[in-house]
Amino acid sequence: MQRHPSYKVLQPVVTKYPRAAGCLFQTYNDIVYGQSRFFRPDDYETEALSAQGWTDVQVLELEGLSRAAISGKKPKMDATLYVVPCSLAETLSFGWLQDAFTQLSDPPEIFLAITSDDASIVYYKLSRGIVKPQL
Amino acid sequence: MTSLLQPSGRKRPVANKAAGRRGDNNRIYANPLPLTFLYPLPSPVRSVLGLLGLNLAKIDTPQIHGLFDHATRSVWITDRAQSLILWRRGFFGKGDLSRSEPSWLNRQVNARRAAAENRLTAEELTAKRRAERKQFKLDRARAIAQVAAQAEALFESEGRVVIPALSGPNIPSAATWKPTPQDSSTLPQQIPSEDEEPFPDDVEHLQLTLPEAFFLLWNLDCLVVEDSDANQLLSIQDIWIAFQMAYLSQPFSGPLTLTPRLELDNPFIVNYLVYHHYRSLGWVVRGGIKFCVDYMLYKRGPVFNHAEFSVVVCPVYEDPADEAASTTNLHHAAPFSWSWLSTINRVNTQVFKTLVLAYVTIPAHSRVPEQVLHSPACLQYYSIREVTVRRFIPARMRD
Amino acid sequence: MTSPRIPLRIANQKAYVWNVEDIANLRSNHRICGLFTGTLPHLSQQNVFLGVPMVLLPEEVVLLVENDAVVLVDDPKAHIQPSLDQLKHWASEDKQSALLQITQAASASKDAPPLSEEAARKRKEREAKKAAKARQAASNDIMAPEQEEPPPSSQLDGLYTVLIPATTSSHEWYNDSACGYTTLAEAKAAGIWSYPSDLHERAKCGVFRGLWEQGMYIGIGIKFGGDYLVYPGDPLRYHAHFSASVLMSPTAQLTPMEIVAHGRLGTVTKKAHLLCGWDDAKKEVSYLTIEWAGFG
Amino acid sequence: MDDSLEQPDAKPPVVNVNTDAHEEGGDDSDDDGDVVLDWTKLVTARPVIPRRGEKEFEPQPGGGSGLQVHVLDRARNAMFDAIRATRTISSKVVSYTMWHPQISRAHVVLARGTHYNTLGHSVPRPIQTDDGIQKTQKRLELLPEEALYLIERGSAFCWKETDLDVTEVDGAEPVLGAPMSVHQAYTEMIGSQDLTLERYQVYAYLKRLGYVVTRTTPPNPEYPIPPPFDLSPLNKKIMPIWDRIRAFCPSWITRLFVGQFDWWRPLRLSKWSFSGRNYSTMFDGLRFLRSGHSIPLLVPKTAPAIGLPTRSSPYHIFFNVHKPATSYRKTSPCPPDYQIVVVNARTTPMPSLRELTELFDVSPELPPPLPRQRRPGKATFQPGPVAPPPSWTKRLQDWLRNKPPKYVPPPRKPHPFMVMKSGKKTVIVAVVDAGNIGFFRFGQGAFEEMPLV
């Protein structure tokens, strides 16, 4: 991990929260390299050039959850998305999820990135309150 | 439904083309394990020797170099050729930026070429299809609302009761809906040509889970592992301990010489037993997070068939007192609620997979001391058995 | 205006409703659907449509009691033995009704065109065969055939309809005036109703109420990966929008795999999943809606 | 390339019905609670059960538009009308039973109809004849679930035993006690003789489908039960000669030849071994972990620690179930087609491994499932008139004309995946959540007996 280009960006939080290092690293790479192409973390002014590129990617510390979240924007969308990484092996709680909202100053929704040791990652959207599905 | 929303220009592969691909796959993925056999003698001599019960094949063992990454609890293969060996011979590992085989770099190259030619890449096609699907849903919702409003008006004016349906001739279905012609703005923007943008380095690696890595290095001896912190190769004894330590409930951050207390219910051991069990029976075993289970079992591998079984690892403590005293974070140790069993069973039957509960017994502490954990010989105290789960539908079982 | 309380018949810690008007009242005025569990008498070969009794979920009972909408009746106690006079009264009414049916049928058949000889013979044969078959069936495999006991032959000659009453509340010998309870504490003290008895059950009641107060209809969700199915209107006309699961406290464990499973099943069944977190100290529910992100 | 079904919005392919592999995939539509129940279709004598897809998404704000409210009222009224239907039965076919609460049995006073082919059993009971002499007489008695089921479906009228002198009461039929309503039968019969509401709900569910349902454990000595299962393994494998020799030799001798198992190098790929140079033997060499249900589940030697609850398991087989078509003989029943455990989903989690093992231990091993019947049009067997065997001369003629003998297809073997899915033994659990019934079957897996390589 230390030899990976993302390490430079993540080092402060990864060393502060070693237990969450794996899921954060995996999620960050997925957003920066997997979800978008031609986009390098050290090159923020480069606009997203493809259909899925995220812009304004930032790492936000969530002290209460002993980890960091990642925020960014999907192309052609003004809303900032918040991604909270966790590992499949962890055990969470309802309060934990609510804390994630609180610590991110209550966005209407957050995306929980769940990582597994085989480098798989899935994203589920959590919204506060009762939000009915679309027809 | 998705296939109907595909752009019409993209035709489904012709049958013999598919057969050709199968043939290629049979060749590319011919070996179920990274080891191969070299036959020094011509085949007629071999068959004569074979009759005598002799087989002089030489085993060719690849030497693959892996890096143990503590944070992600995995072993990374960064060399492309070595990654390919592991992927093609038994489907070991996964590209960390890909859905299966490491293909990130290829996708980058394709994307550029596509951009230069103003074509869409596979990912962009997916994105486009998703966007179309969204549009379809909006159109359908609008049509349903319209039909409902008409029915409402009829009821108010004439007292006629027409139940507005969620489908019908006036409501687009996946089969009838057509996307409106795309304007160019939704196409990807022009991408700078290659000389403006430096060609990306390959940042992807093949990631092996610790059970996968241990299976390869312990049984097949085809993998050496370097510790990414210490920058040195690990002995198999060190690896056995280090892989357990990666899952200890209390993180241990001392030097390897100070071995911490090991635990009989270590998740690495429990998962390894299940992984090894199904691998030894010839199944290709891969992670199952997308199907909310621990493992998927493929008959030959993901390029050949869909997975047949979904496996949930269920640890069982021989002694309930050990379970009560345990600090290990093992999921699924207690019997599930019916609602949970029903959920995962339903998710899996929906995609035609049969749910398997793989029970791993954890030896009682009173019977087996922790010292045995210092060698894989401890595995003989554990056992594995499976229980299959299916719904029973009495209305269909009458005759 | 307070409407009269609907009686819920409690037996073996389960709440039943037998009266169709009560069922209609609960559904239309209280958004309580219960679950039909009885065999429909003339459609007794299928499980899709069922009828009375309606069994209520314990959460529904608790909500209704707390809303002062129902009274919990100790049903075994309310069933008392009839007096001889009551029995005689009932029997004579029963007999009158049978006699009336027979005379009506007789006059009707007089008006009807007489059966041809052939048809009458065939009918007789058919009936004889049927009777023989039934006799055989009844005595089949029984060492001592029932015939040895003098069969209580019908005192009335002729065909009439026997009514098997659905509910007892119309009988004179049903008296629930002294065994009805209007609070959970009273019912618990009487030993007929103990739900909710622990934190988990309290959480379920709290969440049920929370969802109900949002104007929803609530059904059982075990087959959709949760505790409840949550409907925006009467389930007769509307699909459920959510499956919902109850977390009994803010610290109750929740594995990431559960979020994957709920999210995935929701996508497949076109519902969102609601995580309903109960805070027993504050007696409050909070909700989180899970859906697949659409990427990844 | 990967499993294309892994995205949550993936649409599973249309299943080819001819494959053996998928027998229940996806289709849960029959009883899942969110299906449309259109009671308005019930008014006809033969109701058409409508399929899903006729509901609306949501009501308009304020509880629904005029049309929505109208349609809802119509649907509700149809439902209320349907459940208002009374239980009436002709005096010529009604049965009469008498409920004796002290013994939790209903005595069949007058049996009519074919129900008693499969319901009730004969018990000797003391009776007092008119001359005041005590003697025993056999009579037909029903268990609470049987009695309740007959009352509920409108086939039997039930009296409740009373201490009143009812001989003088004059009714349409001889009055034997207090008349019971369905309501009273639910209240009194459930809770007696181990009958819970959940068990009754499962009983009635299966009965409505035509199954014969009896108790597994006889509630009284006269209750007829099927002969015990043969619990021996089905195919005792003939051990290969090598294994027999090995089994005969003490382990130290084999070790001398085969060598001690080296746990640091489990797969011995040494230069000098002459056999084992192919994948098949290599995989074989990897199968050294202990697996399968034949390995005993160890119980800790020490007593369970204080404070740990020792709960008695709710997992006991309760019902024996025979398929409707079985020629069932009540006095000497044949072994059941299925055995069912009934649990309350709200209070009981799924069975633990120990509970499953105990259930498997009392269940018979099942033969591998039959291969699926091919769809009509391909190989349907027509039970038409059977041709007489060809005559000797005919056969000679055929031979002279060089006709090939008639091709007899080999019996179809079940797909190995089918065998793995069903397992060797099966336990069926009916799970009841407040009346919502789901059935799960747990198969005793034996993957270790069917390696792919």
TrEMBL record, chain A:
<dbReference type="InterPro" id="IPR011856">
    <property type="entry name" value="tRNA_endonuc-like_dom_sf"/>
</dbReference>
<dbReference type="GO" id="GO:0006388">
    <property type="term" value="P:tRNA splicing, via endonucleolytic cleavage and ligation"/>
</dbReference>
<feature type="domain" description="tRNA-splicing endonuclease subunit Sen15">
    <location>
        <begin position="50"/>
        <end position="134"/>
    </location>
</feature>
<dbReference type="GO" id="GO:0003676">
    <property type="term" value="F:nucleic acid binding"/>
</dbReference>
<dbReference type="GO" id="GO:0005634">
    <property type="term" value="C:nucleus"/>
</dbReference>
<protein>
    <submittedName>
        <fullName>Sen15 domain-containing protein</fullName>
    </submittedName>
</protein>
<comment type="similarity">
    <text>Belongs to the SEN15 family.</text>
</comment>
<dbReference type="Pfam" id="PF09631">
    <property type="entry name" value="Sen15"/>
</dbReference>
<keyword id="KW-0819">tRNA processing</keyword>
<dbReference type="InterPro" id="IPR018593">
    <property type="entry name" value="tRNA-endonuc_su_Sen15"/>
</dbReference>
<dbReference type="InterPro" id="IPR036167">
    <property type="entry name" value="tRNA_intron_Endo_cat-like_sf"/>
</dbReference>
From TrEMBL, chain B:
<dbReference type="InterPro" id="IPR016589">
    <property type="entry name" value="tRNA_splic_SEN2"/>
</dbReference>
<dbReference type="InterPro" id="IPR006677">
    <property type="entry name" value="tRNA_intron_Endonuc_cat-like"/>
</dbReference>
<dbReference type="GO" id="GO:0000213">
    <property type="term" value="F:tRNA-intron lyase activity"/>
</dbReference>
<protein>
    <recommendedName>
        <fullName>tRNA-splicing endonuclease subunit Sen2</fullName>
        <ecNumber>4.6.1.16</ecNumber>
    </recommendedName>
</protein>
<dbReference type="InterPro" id="IPR036167">
    <property type="entry name" value="tRNA_intron_Endo_cat-like_sf"/>
</dbReference>
<feature type="domain" description="tRNA intron endonuclease catalytic">
    <location>
        <begin position="268"/>
        <end position="360"/>
    </location>
</feature>
<dbReference type="GO" id="GO:0005737">
    <property type="term" value="C:cytoplasm"/>
</dbReference>
<keyword id="KW-0540">Nuclease</keyword>
<comment type="function">
    <text>Constitutes one of the two catalytic subunit of the tRNA-splicing endonuclease complex, a complex responsible for identification and cleavage of the splice sites in pre-tRNA. It cleaves pre-tRNA at the 5'- and 3'-splice sites to release the intron. The products are an intron and two tRNA half-molecules bearing 2',3'-cyclic phosphate and 5'-OH termini. There are no conserved sequences at the splice sites, but the intron is invariably located at the same site in the gene, placing the splice sites an invariant distance from the constant structural features of the tRNA body.</text>
</comment>
<dbReference type="GO" id="GO:0003676">
    <property type="term" value="F:nucleic acid binding"/>
</dbReference>
<dbReference type="Pfam" id="PF01974">
    <property type="entry name" value="tRNA_int_endo"/>
</dbReference>
<feature type="active site">
    <location>
        <position position="298"/>
    </location>
</feature>
From TrEMBL, chain C:
<feature type="domain" description="TSEN34 N-terminal">
    <location>
        <begin position="6"/>
        <end position="75"/>
    </location>
</feature>
<dbReference type="InterPro" id="IPR011856">
    <property type="entry name" value="tRNA_endonuc-like_dom_sf"/>
</dbReference>
<feature type="active site">
    <location>
        <position position="231"/>
    </location>
</feature>
<feature type="active site">
    <location>
        <position position="271"/>
    </location>
</feature>
<dbReference type="GO" id="GO:0000379">
    <property type="term" value="P:tRNA-type intron splice site recognition and cleavage"/>
</dbReference>
<dbReference type="InterPro" id="IPR036167">
    <property type="entry name" value="tRNA_intron_Endo_cat-like_sf"/>
</dbReference>
<dbReference type="InterPro" id="IPR016690">
    <property type="entry name" value="TSEN34"/>
</dbReference>
<dbReference type="GO" id="GO:0000214">
    <property type="term" value="C:tRNA-intron endonuclease complex"/>
</dbReference>
<keyword id="KW-0819">tRNA processing</keyword>
<comment type="similarity">
    <text>Belongs to the tRNA-intron endonuclease family.</text>
</comment>
<dbReference type="InterPro" id="IPR059049">
    <property type="entry name" value="TSEN34_N"/>
</dbReference>
<protein>
    <recommendedName>
        <fullName>tRNA-splicing endonuclease subunit Sen34</fullName>
        <ecNumber>4.6.1.16</ecNumber>
    </recommendedName>
</protein>
From TrEMBL, chain D:
<keyword id="KW-0819">tRNA processing</keyword>
<dbReference type="InterPro" id="IPR024337">
    <property type="entry name" value="tRNA_splic_suSen54"/>
</dbReference>
<dbReference type="GO" id="GO:0000214">
    <property type="term" value="C:tRNA-intron endonuclease complex"/>
</dbReference>
<dbReference type="Pfam" id="PF12928">
    <property type="entry name" value="tRNA_int_end_N2"/>
</dbReference>
<feature type="compositionally biased region" description="Acidic residues">
    <location>
        <begin position="25"/>
        <end position="34"/>
    </location>
</feature>
<comment type="similarity">
    <text>Belongs to the SEN54 family.</text>
</comment>
<dbReference type="GO" id="GO:0000379">
    <property type="term" value="P:tRNA-type intron splice site recognition and cleavage"/>
</dbReference>
<protein>
    <submittedName>
        <fullName>tRNA-int-end-N2 domain-containing protein</fullName>
    </submittedName>
</protein>
<feature type="region of interest" description="Disordered">
    <location>
        <begin position="1"/>
        <end position="34"/>
    </location>
</feature>
<feature type="domain" description="tRNA-splicing endonuclease subunit Sen54 N-terminal">
    <location>
        <begin position="80"/>
        <end position="159"/>
    </location>
</feature>
<feature type="region of interest" description="Disordered">
    <location>
        <begin position="364"/>
        <end position="392"/>
    </location>
</feature>
<dbReference type="InterPro" id="IPR024336">
    <property type="entry name" value="tRNA_splic_suSen54_N"/>
</dbReference>
